Amino acid sequence: MKKIEAIIKPFKLDEVREALLEAGMVGLTVTEVKGYGRQKGHIDTYRGAEYKVDFIPKVKLEIITTDKEVDRCIEVIIEKAQSGKIGDGKIFIYDMERAIRIRTGEEDEDAV
Question: What CA–CA distance (Å, rounded) separates 96 from 104?
């Protein structure tokens, strides 16, 4: 099993979520996050005054999936989250050692 974490632009969330559902991904956790990468924030203007925005709002998707579904999941995220502009985000893939469904005690792929 793998854990996929994707940091994407907030306005891309619905499009990515719908595409993941269509691709058969059944579980997803979404967290509102703030951060920056290479862009190091940006300068914004509000009522004529400029100010520096150090942390850019993003959303973090967390998906647990089987090894055989991980490539398809990544393809879907890239296809739907990509705008071609700076700040599109990142995807991180981790090995998932163990998963347990609290209600039933099912483990690993059965728990997902």
Answer: 19
- What's the pLDDT tens digit per position in 14-53? 999 999 999 998 889 999 999 887 767 666 677 777 767 7
Q: Is the pTM of this model over 0.90?
A: no
In single-letter form, the type of residue at position 93 comes to: I
SS3 assignment for the chain:
CEEEEEEECHHHHHHHHHHHHHCCCCCCEEEEEEECCCCCCEEEEECCEEEEECCEEEEEEEEEECCCCHHHHHHHHHHHHCCCCCCCEEEEEEECCCCECCCCCCEHHHCC
CB atoms under 10 Å from CB of 76, counted, come to: 20
- Looking at residue 27, its amino acid is G
Strand-pairing partners, residue 34, are 57
